[in-house]
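Repro case for the chain-ordering regression, as requested:
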Amino acid sequence: MAQTKTISLSSVKDNLENFSFVIPAVLIFTIFYIIPFIEIFNLSLNEWNGISLNREFVGLRNFEELMQDKIWWKSMWNACYITLIALTFQNALAFALALACDREIRMRRFYRVVFFIPPVLSEIVVGLIWRWILNAGVQNGEYYGLLNHFLVQSGLPHLVNNWLSNPDTALSCIAVVHSWKGFGWGFIMLLAGLQTIDRQLYEAAKVDGANGWQKFWSVTIPMMVPVILVVVILTILGSMQVFVLILSMVGQGLVYHTEVPVTRILAAMTGTNRFGYACAMGVVFGAILIAVSFIMKRISDKAKQA
Amino acid sequence: MKRVLIIIIGLAVLIGLIRFTLTTGSTKHQQESNTITLWHWMTDRQEVFEELALKYEEQTGIKVKVDLYAPSDAYTQRIVASAQARVLPDIYGILDKKEIFASFIENGFVADLTAEFQANNAEWELSLYEKAVDVNRFKDGNIHGIKPGIYGVPIDVTNIQMVYNKKLLEKAGISKAPKTFDEFLQAIVALKRVGIAGLVSGWGELWMADCFASNYAFNIMGEEKIMATYRGEVPYTDPDWIAVFGVFETLRKSGAFFEGIVTKPNKDAEQDFALERAAFSFNGSWCVNVYHGMNPNLDYGVMLPPAVSIERPMRIWGGAGSSFVVNNSTPKKDKAIAFLKWLTAPEQQAFLAERTKNLPANRKALSSIPEILADFAKGSEFTTHPTIWPYNEHPLVTEAFTKGLQSIIIGEKTPQEVAKEVQAMKEREMKKAAQR
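-- result from build under test --
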């Protein structure tokens, strides 16, 4: 009996000791993630203007309204479009440049630094610079926006456009600038991935008579799959949440053509003072992003197994 | 024995620390009780406010801590977040809609200043422009259910009109500023002939386009019909509203708009006008200071937006430019009110007007303003503002309205299509309100 008591006391002590190591992390996670999430979900079930001490409980009405909100779903589509451009254009550019810098070329380090400049710049600054580049204004018969000026000087005046105020080009311009700003992250990660590939694999492929293209498809791509998947997940999460760039490039937006979920959340909070509805948007958007991340994780795991 | 010694030393250190904290805390508290905190969003006035705060400290011994949080959007978010956390400063401004202002009052975040304004035969109230005070006033039977009274202090007045570049108009052979909409369209044709852009404004900030449309709504149909629309008695598909939307279509078709006006922030628009890239601009009286900073030699004049109808006067938005409120729960309420009284006295108002080139809120300080600002002041008799209207439109309808204006400006939709969409949103919101 006495022995059992000693064992159980010692195991309790061990458990307590182990638990004490976990407690700080659990506390931090609870305070900064779990509680805010519960509070946001709670708010999404209410009608609240952000100031009033009284909230009106409306149940799932905000979610019902959200499902029928065409502008919200248009903003989701816009975010998907930006993400699609980033996944293709941005990551293709990042991969191509990473491949180039992985070789023994002159000024390799210089290029690495240069390619990493856009990601470290503030989105506001990038937005304002590109706003100037894409400006469609004219003074004394001359375009003072850099792109239009360049097009006229290059003998392509028919391509001159009101880039940020034209529904056909505004969102694409934002997507391209977002990709330009973001490709440096992918570049660094893909380059790091490329440098971990054992060079002997290439030599073996060469001995087997593989040409450059075959080495790329049969060695580089299979070895890079885990890194590519991480880059893809980060690109999706980053691109779906883009909004500072949009604010600095087109202000409060061009009709609804440049709306993305985060700008809709912001508009609901500060424009129409509907905090409950904004929280419902946040919950749904968060759930979609979690689902996307989960699917990508599954794909990544399967790819690794394969 | 060793353990006991360690415990005694530990306790002594702890007691020492507590005493130190309490002593410094009480000194700090003494200092803090003589300090009032003011939060504002006006980047161009930070230096002047700091100078005035120093002057006030010299005169009264009360320190005013002036904290700037810009831009105004970020400031608004900070104020809302501080209200939620109950950590508002002694003096602050509410830049939001009247409905939100009312919510601040309703929840006890704003002090009722009526008694102060009306003391000594309403000396303080009468020293300030009535329309500026009205922005902070809740009248009898207001729709927000707020106890009638004055809840804020205007520190300057403003109005939004049109400015024109004299040199560019002259270049196009136009000798005087257009007064009617037809004259304005003729001026646009003449300007285009010599390659000068017409109208620039910061309509990337949607409220400015809303303001321009509201001016024409007052001119075309008058206040009564606008309020009836807000009450849901007149639809947006009414011919008068179509005419208001039509103003934007006519301007677009005549090529009056500066390229990219629809997504242009006002800072960019101000730069375009100051650098003489456009002949006209729709902007507020604050622009005098901005243009002076960008191009001190700019030769320009002020005009009311050219009227479409001669039956009714053109009305422009104006009133209090910036107002401050006093935190109702601060123990330093009296000190905060005393500072605001001092700030709105003629001497300080003249100083503010001279340094920041804004119209003063105090009538007696008007004599010291520059000529161009005096021209802006002449428009004050035509001012109106959503904050003094008995009814306001639902924010979602306003959003549909302003986005619709953008659609017309870029030629994507007709006035009729936009009117239909805005009306559909209005009906949806009315239905929702009726269900509650």
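Ordering looks correct now. The longest strand of chain B covers residues 153-165.
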